[in-house]
Amino acid sequence: MDENTGTTAGDSKGSNNGTLTSGPTWVTGKVSQSYDIEFVEAPTEFQVANFENWIGQPWPSE
Questions:
Q1: In the chain, domain spans
Q2: Which of 39, 61, 47, 59 has its CA nearest to residue 8?
């Protein structure tokens, strides 16, 4: 999620980008860019071709 704009969260491999829904707000993250979400109100939809090799990591803030 280094885009810092728009509604696409890019996959580092480039083949399974995610679609950000419900108007997330892009923010500066711990390492690079991220987006501020309410998990119930702003789901992220990903097309996952191979679930065996998929990893996701949310970083909740206080």
A1: 1-41
A2: 47
pLDDT digits (tens, 9 = 90+) for 49-61: 555 555 566 666 6
DSSP one-letter code for 24 = P
Q: What are the angstrom distances between the C-alpha of 61 and each of 23, 26, 30, 48, 52?
A: 19, 14, 10, 26, 28
d(C-alpha 15, C-alpha 33), whole Å:
20
Count of beta carbons in the 10 Å neighbourhood of residue 36: 11
- Residue given tokens 């109100």 in the structure block: 41
